[in-house]
């Protein structure tokens, strides 16, 4: 596997390119447009984005046996589509999802809720589905009313164009300022799985939203029990700038058409690679770090310390500058455990050599002497481009 | 009062230049070299810094009636001088403090503790004080053994040079990469007070340390009860990059020579202005923001939300870019209260106009509808210079 040779979409057969991802045995990559049996997808341009880019996509599962799970941001000021999915959706029987990438429909008040419901109802009507089996996801500008004429006429055209090889079109229709689409289609042990994600880039800065959609023909009897830990070890372990979005959504749909179970570890590996693609394509990112903390008193402490290191602007700029500055790691760890005394942390317990010597992916480790727990968090470096993106474009 | 007309030391009589500081009534500014009765101070170059800059300073109180309070970082990986002050100091009877600004003496192990104790003992011996009445503060490079020959010979010269008008020399000897010294000497209602601080700049990046020393001839019977709330509302309310140092120290010493009490509000105003000088001179800072949260359920919640806003890189880059992006404030507040539901936060409850329209100091306010508590946090913007300082110099 090549380690991010270029900042662009990898060839389909180099999807698992991170050194931190163990590719599942026996994986065969498919044409990335291909969806598992029972699914159709597509993407169209409805005019929200301007410039003619595709900005409206949908995935639909035609199987009555569909099982699903959806995980939504816990941000206390969540956007309209999150509220609609939280309150008005049969979450374990989601047949379809409608996504727009031109308007986050966030901070849009009661009208925003009505608009998200109208999107849902429009796709349901055009595809003959019950409204409460259709999820809505949105990303883009915030605080701007939706252009519903454009969206509703786009949905009609989109519903007619959904196809079994529409995964590439869908993956591109959900992008905002991602530099490359994040997607994969593969088969292993008779089961097919495809997934599409978008990361922390915005039409206009404001909210950095991650969305991810996974389709499989496996039989998944308890989709939430499968999805939740896989998300916790992937999207739950990444940080670009420590900021939680109002719109984050991850959806898993299983058609059951293969009659087989999902091979162990497959979902985890796919989601982790997609998560790392998002970090790697984070705003201004040039390198990806993994902050690994060992010997913590318990799991909560290990995660707390790893997150504090990963979100430290001093560590993030050190990663950019290839400066194996263990003192900054010691400082962040000491801050995470403020009020306790963990002694001075020196180069005997901190390995930051990879910051200087590593490639695009660099590992830094801290060995505490407090117990047996460990945790890690993936993060991007902090660069001039991050500041250009976030300070020099005015919303 | 002019509002930071230039990034340099203000004229002595424009010390209270922040719009957020209420200058105490009747203040008369003194020559900034002047110390209150009972104090001597000074600064010398001992060679730690290279280039011949002064890097060793001391303040001594000659009164037997001295009362004092010292507040030390709660960082769990605290540096040697913090440990010495924590464990080996008569904290309410501190006669003197010895400070070096060339070496933080952090992550230096047992030898670092021995060196900090040797500095303390050396000043005590040269001035005839009991060792446990001498505090030690250090800032500068980390993980580097102390050059104790230079320090100890410097202390001998320093002890001979301490004078009643040595405050300017002291204020300059404690600087690291501060662009201007932070100091004031003033009198009000018969009481004299002087103070010196240094901020978040380092000889080499690694630890950003703030130090502050305050001297007064007032009678202070319970110095900790006076100092702690004043620090909480000043140095406890600022953030440059959210990183807590291993070396932070604030010391108040009162000689009692005036026989008068400290006028109410004076210490708070002086410390707040010094804190704002530190933010204003933070690494790469070009503007200072105040994130004010009102209508929170309780004090803890108000502070949590204000801190999350103040530390958001999206808000900090918006301050730089003069982008009154209320969506970023809503996102940060929503993240601070993740797992709860506070509804969507829109421009009706967020005032960010000052980001675009304000001067060097900009106020942003968020009005929640959850209770009566409020809090604010001061912060610097996130600039290209921050990244240059922290990524492009290698330690």
Describe the structure.
The structure is a homodimer of 395-residue chains. Chain A has 395 residues and is α/β, with parallel strands linked by helices. Chain A has two domains: 19-280, L-amino peptidase D-ALA esterase/amidase (4-Layer Sandwich); 288-392, Ubiquitin-like (UB roll). Chain A is built from eleven helices and 15 strands. Chain A has helices spanning 80-87, 109-127, 148-161, 167-173, 223-232, 266-280, 299-311, 313-321, 326-336, 353-357, 384-392; strands at residues 28-29, 39-44, 56-61, 67-72, 96-100, 134-138, 182-188, 191-198, 211-216, 238-239, 249-254, 288-296, 350-351, 361-367, 373-380. A six-stranded mixed β-sheet of chain A has the order 1-7-8-9-11-4, with helices on both faces. Chain A has a five-stranded mixed β-sheet with strand order 10-15-12-14-13, sandwiched between helices. The longest helix of chain A is centred in the first third of the chain and has 19 residues, at 109-127. Chain A is globular. Chain A starts with 27 loop residues before the first strand and ends with a helix. The model of chain A is unreliable at 202-207 (pLDDT under 50). Chains A and B meet through helix 8, helix 9 and helix 11 of A and helix 8, helix 9 and helix 11 of B.
């Amino acid at each position: 596997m090549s380690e991010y040779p270029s900042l662009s979409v990898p060839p389909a057969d180099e999807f698992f390119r991170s050194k931190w991802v163990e590719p599942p045995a026996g994986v065969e990559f498919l044409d990335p447009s291909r969806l598992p049996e029972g699914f159709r997808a597509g993407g169209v341009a409805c005019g929200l984005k301007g410039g003619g880019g595709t900005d409206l996509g949908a995935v639909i599962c035609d199987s009555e046996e569909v099982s699903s799970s959806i995980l939504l941001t816990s941000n206390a000021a969540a956007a309209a589509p999150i509220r609609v999915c939280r309150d008005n959706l049969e979450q374990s029987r989601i047949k379809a999802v409608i996504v727009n990438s031109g308007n986050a429909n966030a901070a849009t008040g009661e009208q925003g809720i009505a608009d998200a419901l109208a999107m849902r109802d429009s796709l349901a009507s055009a595809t003959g589905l019950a409204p409460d089996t259709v999820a809505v996801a949105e990303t883009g500008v915030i605080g701007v009313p939706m252009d519903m004429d454009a969206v509703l006429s786009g949905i009609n055209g989109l519903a007619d164009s959904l196809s079994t090889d529409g995964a590439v079109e869908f993956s591109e229709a959900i992008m905002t300022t991602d530099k490359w689409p994040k997607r994969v289609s593969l088969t292993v042990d008779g089961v097919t799985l495809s997934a599409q994600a978008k990361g922390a880039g915005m039409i206009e800065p404001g909210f950095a939203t991650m969305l991810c959609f996974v389709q499989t023909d496996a039989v998944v009897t308890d989709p939430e029990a499968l999805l939740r830990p896989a998300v916790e070890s992937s999207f739950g372990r990444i940080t670009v700038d420590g900021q939680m979005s109002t719109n984050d959504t991850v959806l898993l749909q299983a058609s059951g058409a293969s009659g087989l179970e999902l091979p162990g570890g497959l979902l985890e590996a796919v989601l982790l690679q997609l998560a790392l693609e998002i970090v790697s394509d984070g705003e201004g990112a040039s390198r990806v770090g993994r902050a690994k903390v060992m010997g913590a008193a318990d799991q909560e402490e290990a995660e707390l310390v790893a997150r504090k290191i990963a979100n430290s602007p001093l560590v993030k700029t050190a990663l950019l500058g290839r400066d194996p500055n263990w003192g900054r790691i010691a400082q962040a760890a000491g801050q995470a455990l403020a009020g306790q005394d963990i002694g001075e942390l020196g180069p005997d317990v901190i390995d930051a050599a990879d910051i200087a010597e590593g490639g695009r992916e660099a590992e830094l480790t801290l060995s505490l002497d407090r117990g047996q727990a460990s945790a890690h968090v993936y993060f991007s470096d902090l660069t001039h481009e991050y500041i250009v993106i976030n300070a020099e474009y005015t919303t």
